[in-house]
Amino acid sequence: MAQNRTKAGTRLTGRIVFPDIPTYHAARMEFNRRFSKFPKVIVFCRRTQDVINAVKWARERGVRLRVRSGRHSYEAFSAVNGGIIIDVSEMDKVKVDRKNRVAIVQTGNPLARVYKKLWNKRMALPAGTAPDVGVAGLTLGGGIGLLSRKYGLTCDNLKQVKMVVASGRYGAKTIVANRRQHADLLWASRGGGGGNFGIATAYTFRVRPISTVSIFSVTWKWSDLEKVLPVWQRWAPSVTNRLTSTIEVSAKQVGTIVSTGQLLGGAEELRRLIRPLLLAGTPVKVLVKTVPFIVATKFFAESDLHLEPKFKISGAYVFQPLPREGIRIIRVFLSKAPNRHSTVWSQSLGGTGSAVSRVSPTAMAYPHRKAETIYELSARWRNNREQERNIQWVERFRRALRPFVKGDYVNFPDLQIKNWPKAYYGVNFGRLKQVKRKYDPYNVFRFAQSIPVGKKAKK
Fold it and tell me: Distance (Å, rounded) from C-alpha 242 to C-alpha 150?
């Protein structure tokens, strides 16, 4: 299908959805239903040429564009009113080369599909837990998950990017970035955030052999918070890097604390390793078992399903364990949460022998290498009348924790963070602006928190 309602210039190709088409409403919706935007047109690209044509079409007409894969941009940076959404979700091929331990993954793939295709060859990529998150934005922002401490972030395993970039005043072209060519763009694509430099269409990843893993889940009552969280936050970064774990503290209305994790090893070893957790407080439920890796991905995905449709999330990194006052703040806020769908979640990243922390903060655009854990503060709701108090609760919570945390993860974007360049990119922001100037000098790929075009470097 190829059509266009403007005769002059480049024609749109791919599956094209205009507002008068019945599928428009479903096509425009974001994962975060807090946002409802109305684009002029949505193009579902099926091949790279469709992406090139869409970028050229937008530039020739002065139409704002947004890039979309899994629709999971928490602040709806992949949606736009009155512009064009260039959606790559129908570009979903995966090719696995088990012998050379690489996989070529088109950027429209959701994580569940990537995991399944790799598992068919008994291979794995360290990535996230939500099954419908697009691999495109996840990778460009970093990519954290339950293989991170052993095998690094998703972006650490990115070897090559194919990307459609702006060319000249009105054009577009495909380039390949790897260590031999456009190495600066590869550097920026490893943590520099989605949608900043162009439209990634395919990734080449290093992948790892995998078979079975062991998983655990320990549940406590909410009253054990002061006993459990201090133990977890010291234990999680110090245990073997074959074990990555999480902890989630619910709102007091729900009244639970749950820690989960995954070990590259057997159940007997895992029981031994989690002993410090089992001695903290009074666990009310304990699960430890060995399962095929693909089963583990589904186990961890369950917490990302059946959530309330509207949400506000903010993130932060912890470089040393929260002191007693930090834990008290968590107790206070979760005891006064706006509803039962509010939580604090944390995952181990760094610590002893971690593959994440072994990388220099400037080796790639992702700078938060020395953080021991990452935190996510979230509030979720269904009715619009609840929106303001939920958003304000997250913002107040973040401010209260500020003395004990640093920065934010670019994949947990928060429009209320004023100095977002420092929060997301730290020491790497200056270099990212230079890469932006080189590959997108006309600032074609822009949104509320996109990297600005840097000044020309002095010679």
Answer: 5
Among residues 289, 100, 113, 109, which one has the least CA distance to residue 206?
Answer: 100
- Please check whether residue 39 is in contact with residue 81, taking contact to mean a CB–CB distance below 8 angstroms: yes
Contact yes or no for 52/88 (Cβ under 8 A): no
Q: What is the pLDDT of residues 16-34, one digit of tens each?
A: 999 999 999 999 999 999 9
Torsion of CA 107, 122, 297, 413, to 10 degrees: -30
Nearest alpha carbon to residue 246 among 324, 254, 257: 257
pLDDT averaged over every residue in the chain: 96
Tokens of 134: 């697009």
134-173 residue pLDDT tens: 999 999 999 999 999 999 999 999 999 999 999 999 999 9
Contacts of 365 (CB under 8 A, 6+ apart): 155, 187, 188, 189, 190, 191, 192, 193, 425, 428, 431, 432
Q: Which residue has the tokens 């670019």?
A: 410
pTM of the predicted model as reported, rounded to 2 decimal places: 0.96
Helix axes 324-335, 225-235, angle to 10 degrees: 130
pLDDT tens for 120-130 read 999 999 999 99
DSSP code at position 221? E
Using DSSP's 3-state secondary structure scheme, residue 315 falls into strand
Residue appearing with tokens 């100095």 = 419
Cα distances from 177 to residues 163, 185, 194, 233, 437, in angstroms, run 8, 6, 15, 38, 16
- In this predicted structure, what is the pLDDT of residue 351? 87
How far is residue 146's CA from residue 124's CA, in Å, rounded to a whole number? 11
The residue-averaged pLDDT of 377-382 equals 97
Give the number of other Cβ atoms within 10 Å of residue 416's Cβ: 14
Instruction: Examine the pLDDT at 6 and tell me if it is beyond 80.
Output: no
What type of residue sits at position 393?
W
Whether residue 131 contacts residue 111, with contact meaning beta carbons closer than 8 Å, is answered with yes
SS3 label, residue 65: strand
pLDDT tens-digit series, residues 394-416: 999 999 999 999 999 999 999 99
Query: Per the structure block, which two tokens stand in for 325?
Result: 């006052």
